[in-house]
Amino acid sequence: MPEPVPAAKPEGEADPQPGQDEPLPADGESRSTELTGLFLEKPPENVVAVAGSDITFIAKVDSSTLTRKPAMKWLKGKWLDLGSKAGKHMQFKETYDRNTKVCIYTYEMKIIKVVPGDAGGYRCEVTSKDKCDSSTFEISVEGDTQYDCFREKTTFRFSTPITYIFLFPFSLIDRKKKPVKEEPEIDVWELLKNAHPSEYEKIAFEYGITDLRGMLKRLKKMKVVEPKHSEAFLKRLDSCYSVEKGKKIVLKCEVVDPDVQVKWLKNGQEIKPSAKYVMEANGNVRTLTINRTTLADDAAYECVVGEDKCFTEVFVKEPPVTITKLMDDYHVVVGERVEFEIEVSEEGAHVMWYFEDIELHKDKDSKYRFKKDGKKHTLIIQEATLDDIGMYHAWTNGGHTKGELEVEEKELEVLQDIADLTVRATDQAMFKCEVSDDKVTGKWYKDGVEVLPSERIKMTHIGRFHRLIIDDVKPNDAGDYTFVPDGYALSLSAKLNFLEIKIDYVPRQDPPKIHLDTTGNMVSQNTVIVVAGNKLRLDVEITGEPAPTVVWSKGEKPVTDTEGRVRVESRKDLSCFVIEGAEREDEGNYTICVTNPAGEDKAMLFVKIVDVPDPPENVKCTSVGEDCGTIVWDPPVFDGGAPLKGYLMERKKKGSSRWTKLNFDVYESTTYEAKRMIEGVMYEMRVYAVNSIGMSPPSLSSKPFMPIAPTSEPTRLTVHDVTDSTCTLKWLAPEKIGAGGLDGYVIEYCKEGDTEWVVANNELCERQGFVVRGLPVGEKINFRVVAVNIAGRSLPAILQQPVTIREIMEYPKIRLPRELRTKYIRKVGDKINLTIPFQGKPRPVATWYKDGQPIDAKMVNVRNSNVDTILFIRSAEREHSGKYELVLQIENMEDRATVEIRIVEKPGPPVNVKVTEVWGFNAALEWQPPTDDGNCEITGYTIQKADMKTKEWFTVYEHNRRTNCTASDLIMGNEYMFRVYSENLCGQSEEPRQSKNTAVIVKTGDIMCHISDMSCVPKFTQPLVDRSVVAGYSTAISCAVRGFPRPKIVWMKNKMIIGGDPKYLMQNNQGVLTLNIRKPSTFDGGKYSCMAVNDLGKDEVECRLDIRTEKHLSVFLAHV
Questions:
Q1: Per-residue model confidence (pLDDT) at position 931
Q2: Which of 7, 183, 225, 752 is the most buried (most CB within 10 A)?
Q3: Residue 797 and residue 735: Cα distance in Å, rounded?
């Protein structure tokens, strides 16, 4: 068990008296309290909050003396842990200032929009290994006061915190100004506490109390109610029970009668037996078992036996909601949609979304949208902007995840530029370009003038391709054409050349001629570059008479197909070579040969196919850091026929399907350092190669890797002990451990002035302490400690000064605990376990003595250690009482301490109990103290009497400290016997001592009662008084009458006899007559009269009762 830290109260500070006013804190604010135990600051003991407002409680803990981080719990009542209720209504926060040298943890509990259900007792409890401390406080919740405008003039203040009562004496009804006498201030609480319940309405009416019901509730709390003895229950239900959602709970009580039938109620409704609710009776034990509890079972329960009942309350704790699927990172451009998606363990769970430290809410004008689908929760940003860059968090009451959003501005990339065209009349001209964004639109211009569509001119936009098609080309179509994308400072231009055909007279015999842009022979070659997948069409003009024969060939193989992917089309004076969807295999030298009887001509072309490169290879992670990792890869085997521009990288979390781009601009090197990753999360990487044609397919994913870093250096390295050859070191764990955990510590040392460090431990030290052995005597040694985990060694923690290896002598000193400095009292049979710490070097010798003699090992057990000694008695007996002396010795030095132990038990009965004198209705008793006082002082006696006829014993006096007493109010003619119990610290004696003689109360004469002398006519001694009450509040009117024979009482309203109406309750208590009217309305107003009648006559009194409504009360208050 943790050792409780005692709370020290400053000397001279007195508790405030109940009647004194205490300063009241403002709503939602904490006030300072006295500093006790581990707490530097505690929540205030009593706080009154206004419903609907926010309130924050702060507790501060000093951890400078603790060996590990303290743990804080916020509890409501005895057992309800509020940690499971964290959410919108309750929020918890823990902070620790690392920049200061003072080790203080600050804990906060914030209640959002306080409701009446938050009222009650609370407790904050802090624990740390062997120490604990707690602080209790209470919250009261009140609504807004209805009559704020009268606070300054008509507010009285009482001892209950923040209770405002408006007192309006009805003497203010008179509008005429009259001199007002100064009356002393009256404490209404004292009037109500001392008054009979029938007088409550009268006091409320007299002092204008409107909230009488609320005052009576507070009055009930102020009154000390004696615990009512239960005649039906041997053992009641516990005050409350706590159970986790889905588990089973058993409510148990014991009844007196084993055959009695009980009823179980839930929130006042009877529970029927079912598979969920199982009711059992086993002898005197009655149990209610609730299976598979839900939040609906969080209620108040009752067990009813006849008119008696016992209560309890069941708190159902909801298990924490964990996050099963973590949030992914996003890397998008401006305007794209972002969806952060997570999965939780429970459907319908509450998830809080945060952007950095700002909570996101579902507002009408907000850019954020929240979506719930079973266990899936999604945060949607419709159009991302640069302001949305940052870290997004999702919180549940049992988990947390985060994801990063990176937004880049749009950059349009031209994948295929438009090319110049040369066409003939009536042919078709088509300009085509390709851009990186398929949503981008644009306009076409000719010589600076926008081109509009017509029957001959058409413009198309399909995906990333934009085309301008001109049918039946005419000479005026020649010019400069430009495509301008909308929203970008970019333009693509090309020229349309019109080819005029001139027909000249040719001789009949004309050798064939190939007309290319650049004609050549077998030595010089023309090169045509085609992008893979595009169409290649070579239109070659041929002249010659007669018409020459055209033969196309690739290498030595002629191409003769007129249909298919690779084909030859022939027209008049024109030969067309077409490749549909160019492939890498189509690359090579092509020859066109034309012949006729007049001669031959040849031309050679080299067709080069360019494509996107192959994906990079061997992508792997070579090193990692706390939030980064270094990635390397090999260039692609095939660069696509065009030089590589660089690479694009992507990453994703393992198990996720969403890849995040790491760069938008191409990266030229084959080594890349990925940053801004989350430590402890597995990642995968892949790489794209980019050339002038486009982007390659992605590479294979790298093996999963985890960003991880060594821990920070150990903290608070200190020297605990030094001897002639050893040095004991102690330290605390590193402040930052990380996901790599902590494997252990390495301890190193070196002599002062040396630079070579020697490892002191062969294996990692898992504890936070180590004894370095084999050190040279008298040398000055430097020490350092390094933390080690999977990522490597941390920075070392080094002692500021070298340590001199030499034994330190310390005098023996006994640290006797405060409770042992006075007499130590225990009951017979109790277990005694005394732990007494001491100090001294070298190790002192501890010896125990009892009453000057060495203790008997058979009666008392003793265990000694290096720092303390323990005295243990399994079962204490009276012979164990005495003075125990502890002697602590180091050679010729010693220290002594004495502990006095007293073992007590119940005393024996008194002796010589006798009746010494009898007079009138009284009897005097005397006795002597018991011979056995139980080894402690006699604190009092209990005296009982019994009639010799009934022999039933009744208590006359309790805790009587004298050895004599007088029994009064004895009944004449009876004979009484007496018995006496003695009392001490352990309780009453087991057996009483009965008196040796009895007391006889003799009759002194006959008492004659003459009825005729007592006969009298009914006469009212106290009349009825006129009253004015508020509608809806029960009231009563009363009077007093005397008469003999006992008169008959008749109550009337407006001269009409009040019959058995349940609204009226008539009471007669020894001549005091009361008529109670339950919740009167305006129809109950009028004249009420009371008539008393007997054989000698009658008498009658009357009064008037006025009923006021709330409207009349408001008018009256406004007038006041």
A1: 92
A2: 7
A3: 12
* Cβ–Cβ < 8 Å for 1066, 1117: no
Q: Does the pLDDT of residue 806 top 70, yes or no?
A: yes
Looking at residue 387, the DSSP 8-state letter turns out to be: G
First to last CA, the chain: 63
Element housing 567 (H / E) = strand 566-571
What gap in Å lies between CA 181 and CA 726, rounded to an integer?
Answer: 89
What are the helix and strand counts (H, E) for the chain?
Answer: 6, 90
Strands of 97-157, DSSP E: 104-111, 120-128, 131-142, 155-157
Report whether 686 contacts 700 (CB < 8 A): yes
If we measure between CA atoms, which residue out of 634, 641, 633 comes closest to residue 613?
Answer: 641
- pLDDT, tens digit, for every residue of 843-866? 889 999 999 899 988 889 999 998
Cα(732)–Cα(718) distance, rounded to whole angstroms? 9
Say whether pLDDT at 1114 is over 70.
no
Reduced to 3 states (helix: H, G, I; strand: E, B; else coil), residue 162 is coil
CA triplet 1110, 1111, 1113: central angle to 5 degrees? Answer: 60
Q: What is the pLDDT of residue 930?
A: 94
Quote the tokens at residue 1008. 């004659």
**Structure confidence by residue, pLDDT tens digits, 505-531:** 545 668 888 887 644 333 345 788 888
Between 738 and 129, the more confident residue is 738
The sheet with strand 338-344 has its strands ordered as 323-325, 338-344, 376-381, 368-373
Q: Tell which residue, 415, 311, 1040, 329, has the closest CA to residue 690.
A: 415
- CA distance linking residue 563 with residue 567, whole number of Å: 5
What the block records as the tokens of 299 is 């209620």
Report the relative pairing of strands 390-396 and 999-1000 from DSSP bridges.
Answer: unpaired
Rounded to the nearest 5 degrees, what angle is found at the Cα of 682, between the Cα atoms of 678 and 687? 95
Other CB atoms within 10 A of residue 647 CB: 24
Consecutive H or E run containing 189: helix 188-194
Residue 225 pLDDT > 50, yes or no?
A: no
Cis preceding-peptide flag for 1045 (omega within 30 of 0): yes
Cβ–Cβ under 8 Å, residues 343 and 324: yes
Is pLDDT above 80 for 10?
Answer: no
CA dihedral 564, 568, 569, 575 (to 10 degrees): 160
The answer to whether the CB of 15 falls within 8 A of the CB of 38 is no
CA–CA dist 899, 855 (Å, integer): 13
Instruction: From residue 805, give the alpha-carbon distance in Å to each of 370, 585, 777.
Output: 67, 83, 5
pLDDT at residue 81, rounded to an integer: 81
Q: Kindly state the DSSP code that residue 215 receives in the 8-state scheme.
A: H
What is this structure's pTM? 0.35
Eight-state DSSP code of residue 796: P
pLDDT digits 0-9 by tens, 390-433 = 999 998 878 889 999 998 877 778 888 888 888 888 888 999 99
Residue 937 CA to residue 960 CA, distance in Å, equals 14
Which residue is listed with tokens 């209404």? Answer: 188
- Give the CA radius of gyration of the chain: 51
Nearest Cα to 1050, choosing from 1011, 1089, 993, 1084? 1089
DSSP code for 1080: -
pLDDT (0 to 100) of residue 1060: 79
Between CA 58 and CA 68, with CA 64 as vertex, the angle to 5 degrees is 90
